[in-house]
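Subject: two folds for Thursday's group meeting

Dear M.,

Sorry for the delay on this. The cluster queue was jammed most of the week, so I only got both jobs back this morning. I'm pasting them in the order they finished. Each block is the input sequence followed by the predicted structure tokens. Could you check whether the formatting survives your parser before we put anything on slides? The first protein is the one we discussed after the seminar.
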Amino acid sequence: MRSGSINAFALPHNFIGINAGLLLATEREDELAGVLAHEIAHVSQRHIVRAIADMRRMALPLAAAMLASAALAAASKQGGQAALVSTMAASAQHQISFTRTNEQEADRVGMRLLAKAGFDPRGMSDFFAKLERLSGSSENRLPEMLLTHPRPESRIADTRDRLEIPSGKKPAVRSRKAYELAKARARVLATDDAQTLIREFETTLAKGNPADETATRYGYALALRQAGRYDEAQQQIERLRKSDPDRLAFRLETAEIALAKGEPERGWRQFEEARALYPDDFVLAMHYGRALAAQGDPRQGLRLLRPHLSRHPNEPQLYATYAQAAQRAGDLTATHATMAEYHYLNGELLPAIEQLELGLRGSGLAPNEEAGLRAKLKQFRAEALAQDLPVPKPVTP
């Protein structure tokens, strides 16, 4: 997510989000992996599903208690207000305890996942220590029992106690380059002031031998393109490609700069050359498909993206990109169907249902298209009703 706040989250349908601010706050790939392992644990332990079920289970008793408090208030204003406050406080404390228990479980399960994947398990506790430093002074904090998440210092102690690194076994050694390039890209995507960022990159490069010159120069090129300084951006990328000609990130940026400069033939050629090297790469397909939808042949974009829908069925942005290409190509049925999937994967059932309803109102639907839309609509409506959402009336056949 293009947000500077330090946060990560898990949502329904196995969707995990990471803010750019969190990525930038990490110093090692192991720290980022620790956060991802924690969020994956939320998914694997079904915490979101359990939270929804818990809220539904608590809804009726809470409503009954509040009605009883209201009845008491009619007889005794002071007593009724006290009862109402107590009821709401008890409900809030239950939710806090439920959430904190899930967070502690996600820490424990995530730690095991981290070690299994070959990352340094200390990455998780190290990042918690960083959160503790960023949180500032310990003065005037809420009591731990009233915090939605465990305090960083308690999580540091808990995760460090669980570290189990076999003697003589070291975590796998990984190249930092991909991680550092991702951080540089996140830094540019998260900024609202490309010019200031450009000056910061220039200052770092002018000092000579930065900690990671490749990532710094890559971020510099991205910021230059964002600022519309395309020739300078191209110079920086060409410099990077001299030492690493086949790196996908550099090839993608070369293509994006060419399109931004109004050189479509060169841009498409760069994308095709990248496809020859990475024919099944999902990130490449997303960039190429988005460019085709915006500036090229949207039907070619649909053909390019279609195989990835089955390979990556849980990627919301893939469906959004496909919908953009379908709309440009004039295929409104596919537009509504894929936008429905996009909303569904983001946990937005009512907008997903609305998109399917719009698709069914279209003219010239083939029988198989109508059947597919109705099957999805039936599924989404059932899930929405199970969550007590205000589901609209179905479209009549």
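Second protein, same layout:
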Amino acid sequence: MLSNRKINVAWNFLKILFAIALVWYFLSWVDPNELYDLWERVRITHLLATIGLYSVLTLLKAYMYQQILIEQKTRYTRVLNIVVLQNSISNFLANSAGLASYLALLRLEENVKVRQSGLTFLIIKIGDLFAVWLISIACSFLLWDRVEELHNAILFFLILVGLGFIVFFLALFWRRGFISQTTRFIHWVKLTRYSFFEQVANALDSFAEMPQDVVFHTVYKAFGLTFVYTVITLLWMIVSMNAFQLPIDALSILFVSCILQLFSMIPVSVFGGLGITEVTSLYLYTLLGVPGTELSIILVGWRILYYVTNLLLVIYLPIYALFIEPKIPSK
């Protein structure tokens, strides 16, 4: 039987191959001659606003983690350092590597148990999904006549996610028995061989041990913060696409962004969703009337802006290491 490490390496290798294939397909749409005119499309004010909004998202993400882990008395500057590093690893390597760094650093720097930090990550992800699901329902309703080809897929996906939330809220009220059966099933089918499911099982065990009032307070706080985070994320997507003068209305950008947010939660992306984001956007925006050749150039510009923004935020890491960390007493 393959070891857990070999399975993870093989899975990551397949994800990279998948991303390369998607990028290869996307580049077939790109006209190299049009790339020279990309800079002429840039709106400087929108570009600066994009960087500003992404910085706000990073600060808010660190604040969410700190608030959910408030009983652990975590320091915001340390949590922000962990979030910046997690984002960098996730966006330049793989989401799984980013998650692993988040769990390891919280354990090392703030003495937070892996179960507790894993549970925090899971609750925030569920809150993200809930907010995106609600906004997706509204966008789908408003654009229903323009996305006839997607009616069945939209209904299937929204109903599937809705059923998942019914299960989640039932688990809130009868969580000990429900979680016990769920973790038993995960162990029975040996899914814990995969690091993702092992982390889920650990988070569920920690969830089952929490007092009922703490559970409701944590979920309420997490869902409120993640809704604000999701709204700012979608605003960031609208502004970033308009930074390159995407010829389409804001509602359509909002719809596509919701779909991309839902896809980003599926653990198959590497390099910040490279390939998946471009091909999905290409399909959905052309369906909504944007010319494919023009769109492909805009998406190239968007990808460059996305990576540059993440590189700018990495500046916080040496600032933290040189000027902030030495002043913090060790735990």
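Two things I noticed about the second structure. The chain has a mean pLDDT of 89. Residues 39-327 form one domain.

Cheers,
T.
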